[in-house]
Amino acid sequence: MSDEIDTQYRRKVGERIRVIRRQQRLSLHDVEARSEAEFKASVLGAYERGERAISVPRLQRLARFYSVPVDQLLPIEGETDLGISAPIEVAPTWVPGQKIIMDLTRLTKATGPEAEMINRYLTIIQVKRQDFNGRVLTIRGDDLQALAAILGTTVEAAAPRLDELGLLYHPAAA
């Protein structure tokens, strides 16, 4: 019975690894190329199918490669169905103009206490939403209130301040 449980667990870990990779729109070969062959496509595929167990240090390196917390590559304890599906997008509650979309790529390059606190908060949002595409993150009304508090501004002034810091994503400029 223990072997069967191990096999089921490996499959669940593999499913999580596959979901994160697909959210980031990477093929197995993309991962191999971008990781400079640290994660071979064939081996990563075996992990994803649950055919091969991944060691903890390797799982940590893979999480670092995907820029996600390690626990997001592990199945949720006690759940038989991991609920692995695309994140449910809820319409933003705050829409006085255009959507506020954070540029996560720019945020990783930003420095200072504000950037650090914003980064920590957005990581919490990503974990909560199970959204690890790694490039952009749409800010919802409740999120904007918290960001305004972090920035020490009003909700109305938060978006302009984020833009001032160069942290907003502008599709036309991309």
Separation, N- and C-terminal Cα atoms: 53 Å
Q: Indicate the mean pLDDT.
A: 81
* Strand numbers in spatial order across the main sheet: 1-2
Rg over alpha carbons: 18 Å
Category by helix and strand content: mainly alpha
Overall description:
- The N and C termini lie far apart (53 Å).
- By secondary structure, the chain is mainly alpha-helical.
- 21% of the residues are buried.
- The chain is 53% helix and 5% strand.
- The protein has 8 helices and 2 strands.
- The protein has 2 domains: 2-73, 434 Repressor (Amino-terminal Domain) (Orthogonal Bundle); 100-173, Arc Repressor Mutant, subunit A (Orthogonal Bundle).
- Strands 1-2 form a two-stranded antiparallel ribbon.
Short description:
The protein folds into 2 domains: 72 residues, lambda repressor-like DNA-binding domains (434 Repressor (Amino-terminal Domain), Orthogonal Bundle); 74 residues, Arc Repressor Mutant, subunit A (Orthogonal Bundle), CATH 1.10.10.1930. Helix content is 53%, strand content 5%.
Protein traits:
single chain, 174 residues, mainly alpha, 434 Repressor (Amino-terminal Domain), Arc Repressor Mutant, subunit A, 2 domains, two-stranded antiparallel ribbon, 8 helices, 2 strands, elongated
Tell me the layout of helices and strands.
Layout lengths: L1 H22 L4 H7 L6 H9 L6 H11 L33 E4 H6 L3 H17 L6 E4 L1 H11 L3 H10 L10
Antiparallel strand pairs: 1-2
Helix pairs in contact: 1-3, 2-3, 6-7, 7-8
